[in-house]
Amino acid sequence: MTTPTHAPPTAFRWHEACAAGPHRRIRDAVLRATGFDLFPSDAVAEEFARLRTVGDPLAERFVAATTDDALAPERTRAFVDAALADGVEAAITALELDDAAAAAARALFMEFETAPDWLDPTLIEEGAAVWRRWGYDLGAVGNAGTLDTYTEGSLAVPLSLSGGYAGASALHRFLETSRWWIEVSRPGALLTPGSRGRALSLKVRVMHVAVRRGVQRHPEWDAERWGLPISQAEMLLTLLGGSVGPASGLYALGYLTSPREIRASLHFNRYLGHLLGAQPDPIYPTTITDGLRLLFMFDAARSYDAGEAGRELIESFVPAFAPQPGQRWRDRLRARWHLSVQAGHTRLFMLPWNRQEYRLPPSAPGVTYLAARFPLVAAIEFARHLSPTVDRAWQRQSVVGWERWHRWALGNEAEAFSAGTLRR
What we know:
Elements lengths: L13 H6 L2 H13 L7 H10 L5 H14 L2 H14 L1 H8 L3 H15 L7 H14 L1 H14 L3 H10 L7 H15 L11 H21 L6 H4 L5 H9 L3 H7 L8 H18 L11 H13 L6 H11 L11 H21 L2 H4 L8 H9 L1 H13 L1 H23 L14
């Protein structure tokens, strides 16, 4: 089990950013002009720093008890599959777990299967509908924003070591993530026992533990500087990257997500985090403004210390959409088009002073396309606010297009959601 160290990681430069610098000047100007404070409270900042040293104790206990003591990693994954299919008790009996491993498995599955007191089913469905409307653009905007965070070693080094989003494997891991996005946002999926979305969420949670354990032991990981790999704080940022972050950015593409819908997406992502082992409840935002404050704090506290690990991740992601050897000419054209669209999203949604530091494909064709379709998207969004029928059709069509692209890009590959050995 990972033992949290409560000393704030030195790479979290929030105190320096608070005292002076561009973010302090922006905050002061906005505060004077509007009365709105872009800075979170000291208590929120301190808790965020602490959460950079905290992992997922229940899942870590389960993985330690099974992988280290009772089962090999492959059999741990087999146990998870069996427990999801037949129930945890049947899986314990079938794999003959000892008492310690059985207790760890029961504790993990009890938490996973128990709805938290704060859960609101209506908001969960409203939040899932937000993702269905965004469709393909959720992934494109989310990943452009994510690339912008790879300036930070705490985020880039684990991904670089595990290899999931590095080099030629970047597209495949993105397709795995896209399948998860699609499945968890299906109507009723998150609250339906046995749904594929819930099953994939637990597999991702176990995969995160495996990566965390491997990276934490690696000589390239600096715990004093970065805290814990895939910490509660980093997972919180991911949840904001599925709610307040894209909602704010997608206005530029014509998506007219209402404040209530953004709050619903926050609630939806909070429950996603619960299933994934991300439970930063003391500081999880329930308002849009609190979510924006956390994102502003992250940007202000950057250390820009990812080095070559970050460069590899940023510069390999969009090119992974390029045409592949052996593709038919129609598929090559389609791949070239998606490459342009993804590059367009990076132009619009990466901070320009960060983007200019990296070699990325030309973005003009993608930006032109996104700008040209703005009136159509905005018109549909306006109409769906007036008509539930239009809204349902808009959600359905967005998901159909998302899945059509996914099937074409994935081909005959399968989503594994498993962590292998670190690549270096």
